[in-house]
Amino acid sequence: MSSRSSSANRSERLAHHVPHPPHAQGSPSPSPSSSSRNGGGHAQAHHNSARTKPTSNAKRSVTPNSRARSFDADEEPGRVRVTVRLRPKNAEDLSNADFLDCVEFQPELKRLKLRKNNWSSESYQFDEVFTETASQKRVYEVVAKPVVESVLRGHNGTVMAYGQTGTGKTYTVGRLGKDDASERGIVVRALEDIICDMSPASDSVEVSYLQLYMESIQDLLAPEKTNIPINEDPKTGEVSLPGATVVKIQDLDDFQHLLQVGESNRHAANTRMNTESSRSHAILMVYIRRSVHEKVNDEISSREKGGKSDLFDGNRIPIVRKSKLLIVDLAGSERIDKSGSEGPLLEEAKFINLSLSSLGKCINALAENSPHIPTRDSKLTRLLRDSFGGSARTSLIITIGPSARHYTETASTIMFGQRQLQLETSTHQKVLADTTQMYEKKLAELSKRIEDECARSESAEEQLGLMKKLLDEHQISIQNHKMENARHQKALSETTQIYEKKIADLVKQLQDEHACFEGAEEQLDLAKRLLNDHHKSKLGQKDIDELGLKLQEMYQLHQSTLNELQLLKSEKKDLLQEKANVNEELHSVRQRLLVEEKQRKAIENELVKLKRAVPENESDFEDKTSYIKEDINKRSSGFGNQMGSYRSNPSRDSRSVGLQKILQLLTSEDLDIQIHAVKLVANLAAEDINQKRIVDEGGLDALLMLLRSSENTTILRVASGAIANLAMNDRNQGLIMDKGGAQLLAETASKTDDPQTLRMVAGALANLCGNEKLLMVLKEDGGIKALLGTVRSGSSDVVAQVARGLANFAKCESRGIIEGHRTGRSLLMDDGTLTWLIANSNTASTSTRRHIELALCHLAQNEDNAKEFIAGGGVKVLIRISEESSREDIRNLAKKTLRLNPSLQPEMPMR
Ligand SMILES: Nc1ncnc2c1ncn2[C@@H]1O[C@H](COP(=O)(O)OP(=O)(O)OP(=O)(O)O)[C@@H](O)[C@H]1O
């Protein structure tokens, strides 16, 4: 919403002054549809109707365990979501070829690396990181849209932008994008979404636009209103500004007009106050009222229905739901010492510091789930009181620039954003334990289910077996019946034959003996009865058919049981797979727990050792051990690195860690203690504020002594790293050289092949190469030869340091020649340096190549180098650099060199 250095986009916005918006009427005197909060309309309405969902401190009930990293899930609205956006390089950034960017983004990991110098960097995790190519749309959708959606559902919400001046806060938040909608910032996109979701007949959206400067609130829609008081309702906790102008918005055009008026008023006010826009906070307040029918419970419904049935729509009661969205473009976060150190400027910086640090404390308290959020400390946090924490959603986007020159500001901005994530480190252990418990529970449940399923499948198998048995028995019984039937048939026909014969005999006898006639008839009857009996005992076709049907049914049953068994088997297979997956996850969680446990134990052992070493001063020991613990934590825990817990501890000054004692430990006979002590000194040496004291108290001598006498790889590596850190400053560079540091570094490089040690040595020598006064001694002490020798490690990190050192060296020589205190051929022309530079000018990584290209350009500028430069094939390389270098400034430098060095002219191809 404002910008100091962004004159381009601000002037674009202010240049075309537009007619007054239909409802704001030029802001000083609001139109009939706008209402002043001064005892009038809107404020009254706010007080008269109880809020449907009051937000108060009592509502802040986010449990630590619910701190997942999702912002969209409704269950953790109180968490502050923090994202980072990187501004693309501007002309100033591009003109500094010698500096590496101080940040490197890893968007796929939502992480960024902050590079302190050429050999140390730290990683920080955020909810999202946006690279310089991120679109305005994507930034809005990730940062602000979830807040806007929550506000439309009736909760309050806040979106804030924080960062050093010129890093893109206004671009991100306040860009109007009148000519190009894709350029629109968060404010315009938020209002667009809100207006789209409103029903014109029953809902309303109103805005106030304010600036907070030196703890005084000014109305940007009626700039004569200053020092507007903040009103807080003691019952509901609702914050209001009874004196501020509130303007009703009908459509997006309305709003954009209004924003422009606010911007021009802000510009005019700031010019009057003789301050810059980035020194105040700009706050847009959006009030939303929606008519909704809310479901009531049955009891209330039936009670209320008694008298006022016409008010109800079934079980729904009509209410007005109110919510508020705050969008804040915070003042620039630059340090006090950069903003001026006396008079009004100091006052101004103090007020900014007050509000930003109180905002930081509130974010911290929210992150710690503290019952008390200290909002009373500044007007900014009092204004935000009902719009963050509790059921409100808060999103903070921090903006940073890429340039290493603003490392300190960028680091402190990142630290501010990291505060709310800090807690996660300490709760990590608990989360891991909870996760293990959860997986164990899940595993137990799964095992139980698998057991049940196995039992079920076993009983199905049993049933199937039974059925098979029955089927077999039936088949046997059918077979038996068939055989019996055949036997009966045979017996029947035999008996029939016998009796027919008997009848024939009897008939014959009857004919022969008339007297026997009656007896024969009786016998015939008997035979017929017998024949009948035989027929009755025979198994009929009908019985066989029935048995056949039964057999068929049994087959079908058998088939369906088989299918069920198949299904059960595949289910069992899935369950076993799931069990294996869960086991695997459980295993990895356990592994991590084991690793962390090991690390904790190792730290405890180290502390015990150190305690034995320094028993005499208890409080000094406490300071030291806590620092060492922090140091070891930082090194050993991947999580610690990501969360930046190490950096967030403010007391890293060497005073608090008993420097003298630590320096004494450098000579300890216990190797472990010696290693820890040198690590401590190296860490302290990484901070500018400690360096002078380390050198003054003999730390440099002690480190050089270690290089001279130690054979231990770790000690050599860390001591070289510490010297490299000390070698970043001019005064120390001279001392290092005076004390024979270059020779010792060269010797160290010659007695090791450890790539990390070689990287540290190369880093230290590369830093010494940047001091013009030391070039000659550095060369004489074998520093350049040793620097070049480190490339034998083959490590690209080492090569990068060598290229940086040679570029520093060549650049210092050029400067000396231009300023007239150096003549003659470059000291780099011996030792194979030029050959190495030419050979690697097209192979190394981009940043290393840039340094090699710079070194070659500087060497080519010196006419006394020309003969060897030409003989080594340098001109061809220089021409390629002038055409193909990835950096425009280096292409220009190469072109200029080719143009201005007459000795190279004859070598140029004819065009
Ligand atoms: N993501 C981006 N893409 C393109 N240009 C950008 C981006 N971010 C910032 N800029 C440009 O950088 C310049 C500074 O940005 P901006 O004014 O938004 O910074 P600021 O942090 O608001 O500064 P101040 O605190 O001084 O108001 C502007 O010219 C802006 O257009």
TrEMBL record:
GO terms for molecular function: ATP binding; microtubule binding; plus-end-directed microtubule motor activity. Residues 443-491, 558-613 form a coiled coil. ARM repeats lie at residues 657-699, 698-741. SMART domains: ARM, KISc. One of its GO terms (cellular component) is spindle microtubule. Keywords: ATP-binding, Coiled coil, Cytoplasm, Cytoskeleton, Microtubule, Motor protein, Nucleotide-binding, Repeat. One of its GO terms (biological process) is microtubule-based movement. ATP binds at G163, Q164, T165, G166, T167, G168, K169, T170. Residues 51-68 have a biased composition (Polar residues). Residues 1-75 are annotated as: Disordered. Interacts (via C-terminus) with NEK5. This is Kinesin-like protein. The lineage of its organism: Eukaryota, Viridiplantae, Streptophyta, Embryophyta, Tracheophyta.
